[in-house]
């Protein structure tokens, strides 16, 4: 057994890559799978998946064992080899480069693909990059086009996938590769399909400009490797067609080009979901969370009633999904006498700075904002956060309400939750319960998959009234 196969002999928890067994089996669109809860008892029926935010799936990432020939290389020999291959390295404890494919110690199923492709020796970036990637180290690689960069990260990714528990129904990918263009994403997928075929690893390519249907079906079946352009991936995440909770191997291919093309906000959003998904998703326990089941048409009247209850001059941050929504609700609030201003991506920098200064100074204690505009804002003493629109992910929910209850202060978050948000109910309940918050009967019903209650019921309870309860600003 190869050192990359140092897994338990349990054929159900870990996929047997040499057979058609295991979840998903061999598929026409090219790869295979693993799990966010261990599937030791999986018998073909979809198990009920209780969200376990404290115990996400453990994973292995260090598979590299230095061969005797590499270990025998002196520092002088290493430097001479790097100079000859024009390899420059920075960082601590950088492993020695490998000179041959056998030195890497790839398992047989990977070596068969290398031999089949007719490769003679590793390219420079492969010689130095493979030991780093197989050790599970963070790595930035710079090399020319055609230098073998794709296989430099793709072959270790295949080894990584095969060492993890198989996917359970509802799991997202294990390996995520971001690329700037559709053309590059398709090229990467072709290589992934070719080199992942022998271990039956499923992959799919997610990019814009084509119908979503086939991509959605691939994601729903379960794929271990997703190659994606940032915009379409965010679309899939916000539509809840996939998630990044199982991602433990992340690649940014042509990262400099993606930044030049203006993808930095999308990349940050994606990476935040990867890192949060790998940690505990918990809300600050100093924040009281209230969730009100409402219809879309009830939202504004509910907002006004809530403001009448809590308005005491403290800062109130209201989150909306869209820039248009921010402007419409802010305009209506001001017409009704509330001191509100909005901040979003269509505002000039000067406008944003002015709105922020008015909010910080308490001259306009109500601010509406979109997620993107609010990202990076540093405003102390926000007493209340109101989710007028529920966000596109639970990670964004935790980020939003985290604007209050900072630096040891108490805070309160109010959330309007509609039938359109029902798919988030179960995970939202888990967050509330972990933080010791009350779960309303209406939300509990939605969490069990039942239809939402008739509109007009529910409401915030035990919220406490502000001074006077009226509008001293009108």
TrEMBL record:
This is RNA helicase. Residues 99-127 form the DEAD-box RNA helicase Q domain. Its EC number is 3.6.4.13. Residues 130-294 form the Helicase ATP-binding domain. Keywords: ATP-binding, Helicase, Hydrolase, Nucleotide-binding, RNA-binding. The gene is LOC111278977. The keyword Thylakoid does not apply. The lineage of its organism: Eukaryota, Viridiplantae, Streptophyta, Embryophyta, Tracheophyta. GO terms for molecular function: ATP binding; hydrolase activity; RNA binding; RNA helicase activity. It comes from Durio zibethinus (Durian). Residues 1-51, 444-474 are annotated as: Disordered. InterPro entries: DEAD/DEAH_box_helicase_dom, Helicase_ATP-bd, Helicase_C-like, P-loop_NTPase, RNA-helicase_DEAD-box_CS, RNA_helicase_DEAD_Q_motif. Pfam families: DEAD, Helicase_C. The keyword Cell division does not apply.
């Amino acid at each position: 057994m190869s050192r990359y196969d140092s897994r338990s002999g349990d054929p159900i928890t870990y996929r047997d890559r040499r057979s058609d067994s295991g979840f998903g089996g061999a598929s026409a669109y090219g790869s295979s799978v693993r799990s966010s809860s261990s599937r030791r008892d999986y018998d073909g029926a979809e198990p009920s998946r209780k969200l376990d935010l404290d115990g996400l799936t453990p994973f292995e990432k260090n598979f590299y064992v230095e061969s005797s020939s590499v270990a025998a290389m002196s520092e002088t020999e290493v430097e001479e080899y790097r100079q000859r291959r024009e390899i420059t390295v920075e960082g601590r404890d950088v492993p020695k480069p490998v000179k041959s494919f056998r030195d890497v110690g790839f398992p047989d199923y990977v070596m068969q693909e290398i031999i089949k492709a007719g490769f003679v020796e590793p390219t420079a970036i492969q010689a130095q990059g493979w030991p780093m990637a197989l050790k599970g180290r963070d790595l930035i690689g710079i090399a020319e086009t055609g230098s073998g960069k794709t296989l430099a990260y793709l072959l270790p990714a295949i080894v990584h996938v095969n060492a993890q528990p198989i996917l359970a129904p509802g799991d997202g990918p294990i390996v995520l590769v971001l690329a700037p263009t559709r053309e590059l994403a398709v090229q990467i997928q072709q290589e992934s399909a070719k080199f992942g075929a022998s271990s039956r690893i499923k992959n799919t390519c997610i990019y814009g400009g084509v119908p979503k249907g086939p991509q959605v079906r691939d994601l729903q079946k379960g794929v271990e490797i997703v190659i994606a352009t940032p915009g379409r991936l965010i679309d899939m995440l916000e539509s809840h067609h996939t998630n990044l909770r199982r991602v433990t191997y992340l690649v940014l291919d042509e990262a400099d080009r993606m930044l030049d093309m203006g993808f930095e906000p999308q990349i940050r959003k994606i990476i935040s979901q990867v890192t949060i998904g790998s940690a505990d998703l918990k809300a600050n326990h100093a924040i009281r969370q209230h969730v009100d089941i409402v219809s879309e048409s009830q939202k504004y009247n509910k907002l006004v009633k809530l403001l009448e209850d809590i308005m005491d001059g403290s800062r109130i941050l209201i989150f909306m999904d869209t820039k248009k929504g921010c402007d419409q609700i802010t305009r209506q609030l001001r017409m009704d006498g509330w001191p509100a201003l909005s901040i979003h991506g269509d505002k000039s920098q000067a406008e944003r700075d002015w709105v922020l200064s008015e909010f910080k100074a308490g001259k306009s204690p109500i601010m509406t904002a979109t997620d993107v505009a609010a990202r990076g804002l540093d405003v102390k003493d926000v007493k209340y956060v109101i989710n007028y629109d529920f966000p596109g992910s639970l990670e964004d929910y935790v980020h939003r309400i985290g604007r209050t209850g900072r630096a040891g202060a108490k805070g309160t978050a109010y959330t309007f939750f509609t039938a359109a948000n029902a798919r988030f109910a179960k995970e939202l309940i888990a967050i509330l319960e972990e933080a010791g918050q009350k779960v309303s009967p209406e939300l509990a019903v939605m969490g069990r998959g039942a239809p939402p209650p008739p509109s007009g019921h529910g409401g915030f309870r035990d919220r406490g009234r502000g001074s006077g309860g009226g509008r001293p600003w009108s």
